[in-house]
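Exercise 3.2. Students should predict the tertiary structure of the chain below and write it as structure tokens, then compare their answer with the key that follows.

Predict this chain's 3D structure.
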Amino acid sequence: MTDEFTFRVTKIDFDEDYIPAETTRITTNFANLARGQSRKANLHNTLRMIDNRFNALACWDNPAADRYAVGLEIISVDMTIDGVTTGGIFPLIELLRTVITDRKSGDKIDGAAGNNFSSYVRDYDFSVLLPAYNRGKPKFDVPQSFGELHGNLFRYFVKSEAYRSNFNKPPVICLSVSSNRTYHRTDNCHPILGFEYRQDENSLTDRYFEKMGMQMRCFMPAGAAAPLAFYFMGDLLSDYTNLELISAVSTMETFQKIYRPEIYNANSRAGAVFQPSLSHQDFSLTQIVYDREERSRLASEQGKFAEEHFIKPHQARLEQWSANFSL
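Answer key:
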């Protein structure tokens, strides 16, 4: 480890008064919800959905299903190269950390860190680099080194003092399953995460997260409409407590119900063989306004921002560092 790349971690509460910071990726789920005329109702309803889902899963010694409240912190990670980057500090990634309040005991309990995952460099890779690489090609292809710089930066951060001083466990990222894959339910059933599903082959997102040092497993918790994809380091089922796992499920399943209701707010549950589809029509909408089309359009703009302010000014340095990177 060297001191050439340094990280700064800042935190802001995601609550009913949340206003996105200027450096926040506005395609991020929580930032999208906190803008426009419906922002106050969006935030209120989202937080209530998370609390309700958490209490439904943490049902022991919780007869009224109101024992726990889930607080969310937005964790922003800024990066500098030799103490400075073009235009100042570069906003590298954002994560969510959950903090659980036990209303019965009054205790504050650490939940999972990670949950949502946002990255300007990932926007660059998927929305700028890949389209340029495939322009004019008859068949979609991926560069051999695709995701390596991003993955190495992420692993470097997780091993950094900045991470260790703020978090006591590696992150768990929870995402939607891929609409390009078929998932098969297994007999393996976890008491919190539910039945495990396995896919026919890894997706591009799975391979991208592998470069970040993370493996993936899919589980469908009780009461869910579809399985969730969990990306983690180590052992997902042994390294985290029940409440930590529930905090990840309740937070990210709520966001997915809002963002992908065709899959996660469907009126019928995934069967033994499941093919997710965003064209599915039998689903219910939440009472939360979410601009999905804007989110997709802005990913390209933010990828170009990363290219202009981070990739191009430091490309030779970053490529050399990444090629020689080792933990």
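Discussion points: Residues 5-323 form one domain. The CA atoms of residues 261 and 285 lie 6 Å apart.
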